[in-house]
Design brief:
By secondary structure, the chain is mainly α. It has two domains: 3-69, 434 Repressor (Amino-terminal Domain), CATH 1.10.260.40; 75-113, no CATH class. The chain contains eight helices and no strands. It has helices at 3-17, 23-30, 34-41, 49-59, 63-69, 75-83, 85-95, 100-113. Helix 2 packs across helix 3 (34-41) and helix 6 (75-83) crosses helix 7. The longest helix is centred in the first third of the chain and has 15 residues, at 3-17. The N and C termini lie close together (8 Å). 10% of the residues are buried.
Length: 128
Amino acid sequence: MDFGNHIRRIRQRRYQVNRRYSIKSVAERIGVDPDDLERIERNRKPPDEEVLQRLANDLGEDMDLLLALVGQIASDIRETIIRRPVLFTELIRGVSDLPDKKLIMLIHEANRDRSGHGFKPVTRIVDQ
């Protein structure tokens, strides 16, 4: 899946039912020049994480999915990995082939163990 095309398709679908999703209107709401948003949609300018967060919020999209589409991870995740790189590298490699159902079970188990620490529950799985 291509990031720019993904964003443009979402914005254009929303525009068909609500004119507030024109390039100009979205750009204004997320604080970028309309030409910059057009370049982002055409994959000519990668958005920084802050712009991407505002765009995800405006379009109602999952931030982590959008970051993955541009080949990035959220800064808080990056910092967590950097603090314990060997453990998280092994964890990711160890679970990379598990089916989504098993990953969700692991996430729920981790959330139960860490309840009250600000973890958000897994509410949807995005086809990859």
